[in-house]
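Input for the complex:
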Amino acid sequence: MRSRDLKLLEKLKSGDASAFKELFDLYYMPLSVYALKFCGSFSLAEDIVQELFVKLWDEKTFMSFNNAIGPYLFKAVKNNTLQALKKRSRYRFEVIDQQLDLLIEEEMPDMATVEKEKKKLYKEIEALPEKSKGVFKAIVLQNMKYKEAAEHLGVSVNTVKTHYSRALKQLRNSLDAIVLVLLV
Amino acid sequence: MSKVNDHILKLIAAYTANNISKSQLNDLQKWLQEVPENKQLFADYLQLYKKSQRIGFIEHIDIDNAWKSVVEKLERPLAPKAKTTGSKLRSLSVMRGIFKYAAVVVFLLGIGYLLQKAYFNKPSESVFPSENITLQLEDGSIEIIKLNTSSNIVDAKGNIIVSQKGNQLVYTSETDKDTLVYNTLTVPYGKRFKIMLSDGTNVNLNAGTSLKYPVKFIKGENRQVFLDGEAYFDVAKDANHPFVVNANAIDVRVLGTQFNVSSYPEDETISTVLVEGAVSVHNKKVPYKPETATYLKPGFKAAWDKKYNSISIDKADVEMHTAWISGKIIFRHIPFDDIVRKLERHYNVVIKNNNKDLGKDFITATFDIETIEQVFKYINELHPIDYTIKNNLITIN
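Predicted:
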C-alpha cells in the first residue's frame, strides 16, 4: 500500500492526471468509512471525502507532501469531519464515543474481516422478525432517520422505534460472540 | 445476558440513531452511572450499531458515481484541453511552482491547511461587509468583480476585454490592441484575487492591493506593471521582454521567475522575496544598468527602506512571505507592532493598540480559518491583554 502510495505521489507531482484517479480508487472507500466512524452519516461522510479530493486536485495540495499521501488524507478527513460535526452537534456522550472509536481505530478496515462480519450480520438480520428486519435495514444499513424509515415502510414512527430497539436487542444477543471478540 | 429494560433499550436505540432528546439523554446518563456493567453494555450496543452501519455503508457506496461527482466539482480540468488562442497552458507547472512553497507551509501546519482549504470559499471573516474588488477599464469606468463567478467583461463595442473564471481574471493576447492600454485591479482589505496577464504571467494579489497592467503587452517593449500593495508573481518566460514591476521607489526586473513583492504605502519598506529564478531590484530614479542593480538569489529578500533610500538583502523565510497566497498569515517571532498592519489587511479591521508592552512582544502564530475574534483570543493567551472588538474596530488598552 505504502509503496503504491509513494509511486502515485511521484506521478501526481509530475502532473499525471491518471494518478489522481488511481489515488481516488485506492482511498475513496477507506476514507469514507473512516469519516463515517466519526459522523455516522452516509451523506456527510461521502461529501467530506469528495470535497477533499476536489481540493486536492484544484489546489494541488499534494505538492507539499513529502511522505505517503494516505496519512495526510486520513488526518484531513478526521479533522474536517469533526469540524463539520461541531456545526450540527446533537446530544452525544463524547467520552463513550471516543472510547469506542479507539476500538475501531484502524484506518484501513481489512476487507476480508469486513466480509466475514458482513456474512454473519446478514445471517442474523435474516433471522429477525419481518418488521424488525425492515426497520433495522432502513435505519442502520441505509442510514435513514426514524421519520424516513417510517415513511419508507409505511408504518408509524413509534412502530419504527419499537422494532428498531427489538432488532438491536436480538442482534446483540445473537452476535454477542463476535462483538466480544472484537472488543479484545 | 442482557439486563436492559425496554425503556433503556429505546434510549440506546435513539442514541445510536442520533435521535435522542435532552431529557432522554439525561435518563440514559443516569442509567450508565448506576453500575459499571451498564457502560459495557452500552458500548456493546454502540459497537454493534457502528459495525453494522459500516457494513451497510460499504454496500451503499457507489465509487463510480462518487468519481463522477468529484470530476464535476473540479475547477481545474483533469486533462488540460488544447486552447486555440495560443495562450500558454502552463497552469500545472505554474501551480507546481507556487505550491512547492505553499507546500512547506502546509507541511508545518499539517492539517490546518487542508481544513482551511475546505473552508476556503466561505465568506471572509471580516466583521463588516467589505468593499468590492474593482476593475478599472481604460476609459476609467469601473466594473465590480464578484468572487467565485464566471463571466466576460466586454467593452462598448462588445469585444471581450477579459474573462473572469472563479477568483481569477484571464487576459488573452487575442485582443487587437497594438498600443498600451491599461486596466487596474483593486482588491480591498479582507479579500484576495488572481490575474493571468496576456503573456501568461500569473499574479496573486493580496488584500489591500492594486495592480495596473496593460491589457496586452506590446512586442519589443518591456512588460511593465505597477504595484501598490502585495503580489506574488509567476512570470512567463520571455527573455526578449523583461518583466518589470514598478513598486513605488523601486523597479523589480525579471525574465521569468517567481517572487513576492510587498509595497504597501503604510509600510516602511518595500520587500521583494525571490522564490525561484533571478531578479534584480533597483532605484527607479536611476536609469537601469545591470551593473548597478541589486541581484537577489532564491530564498533571499531585498528590503528597500523608503525613508533612507537604502536596500538591504537578507535570507528570507519564504513560507512566511508567501503564506497569504493560500489564505494564511504566518508570524515567526515578529513583534506585535509589526503584525498589526497584516492583521488589519487580512481581516479588514482597524486595530488601535494602546498597550506598549504588547507592541514589543514577539508573536509566533499561524492563522488561516480563524476569525479575528479567535486571533485575539490566542494573542490574549500568549500575552494577557484588555481588549474590545466592536464591529471592525479593535481597541487594546
